[in-house]
């Protein structure tokens, strides 16, 4: 690889790349469906919730607060406008639990960050509620590995172009690592970076996508323990 294209920065997603996340949402969804059991099957309630979430994303963005508001809105619609104060209180309680869930670091994360820190600029690029993401990063104990942190409203090719231009040598010399093809990998490749897909068993329905066809800068790993070797091969 020519020196002007050599990798100099690595971006990391946070939720379900560095720590567990989606399983806490799925527990909240199961609790929500149980609360509305008298108004439809769990499948129908959750389908309605996803429809409302999709509708609300342009208004609320990603994160627990928007999810909680979408649960309340779904409850109002499912009950024909008869959602009780007690039901609303239970939904708010489920949202607060999501904001307080413990941080469980995924396997190989500390090892991978430790091997790459110092040799490359490490950048955390995550979307969601600002306060919630800041809390999780602080409680994770991983903040010291990162040279920069970007908490963004969405992840598009323009997002990665801006982030890697601001904190590194541009997207052509950067890599983005994450569990979402739709948010972490495909738009990073579109911006000119490498995109590294590290799948997890649970993925939010809105993040499903197909791998990019014949993309020379696309790589898939089974876990983050394989990342340092991939970086060494590319460089």
- Class by SSE composition: alpha/beta
CA-based shape: elongated
Measured as a percent range, the helix fraction is 40-55%
**Number of helical stretches of at least 4 residues:** 9
Give the amount of beta strand, in percent. Answer: 5-15%
Query: How many beta strands in the DSSP annotation?
Result: 6
Overview of the structural elements:
The longest helix is centred in the N-terminal third of the chain and has 19 residues, at 42-60. It contains nine helices and six strands, in the order βαααααβαβαβαββα. A six-stranded parallel sheet has the order 3-2-1-4-5-6, with helices on both faces. The protein is of the alpha/beta class and 235 residues long. It starts with 8 loop residues before the first strand and ends with a helix. Helix 8 (181-191) links the parallel strand 4 (174-178) and strand 5. It has helices at residues 22-35, 42-60, 64-78, 85-99, 109-116, 130-140, 157-167, 181-191, 227-234; strands spanning 9-12, 121-127, 148-152, 174-178, 194-197, 218-220. Helix 3 packs antiparallel against helix 4 (85-99) and helix 7 (157-167) crosses helix 8.
């Amino acid at each position: 690889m020519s020196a002007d294209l050599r990798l100099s920065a690595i971006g990391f997603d946070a939720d379900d790349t560095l720590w567990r996340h989606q399983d806490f949402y799925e527990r909240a969804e199961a609790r929500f469906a149980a609360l509305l059991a008298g108004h439809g099957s769990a499948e129908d309630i959750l389908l309605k919730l996803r429809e409302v979430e999709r509708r609300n994303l342009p208004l609320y963005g990603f994160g627990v607060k928007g999810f909680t508001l979408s649960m309340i809105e779904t409850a109002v619609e499912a009950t024909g406008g008869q959602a009780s104060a007690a039901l609303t209180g239970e939904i708010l309680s489920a949202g607060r639990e999501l904001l307080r869930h413990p941080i469980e670091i995924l396997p190989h994360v500390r090892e991978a960050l430790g091997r790459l820190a110092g040799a490359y600029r490490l950048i955390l690029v995550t979307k969601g509620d600002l306060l919630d993401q800041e809390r999780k990063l602080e409680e994770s104990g991983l903040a010291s590995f990162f040279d920069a942190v970007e908490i963004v409203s969405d992840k598009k090719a323009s997002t990665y172009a801006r982030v890697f231009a601001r904190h590194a040598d541009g997207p052509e010399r950067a890599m983005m690592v994450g569990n979402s093809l739709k948010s972490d990998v495909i738009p990073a490749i579109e911006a000119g970076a490498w995109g590294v897909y590290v799948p997890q068993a649970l993925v939010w329905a809105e993040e499903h996508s197909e791998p990019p066809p014949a993309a020379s800068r696309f790589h898939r790993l089974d876990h983050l323990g394989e990342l340092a070797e991939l970086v060494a091969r590319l460089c």
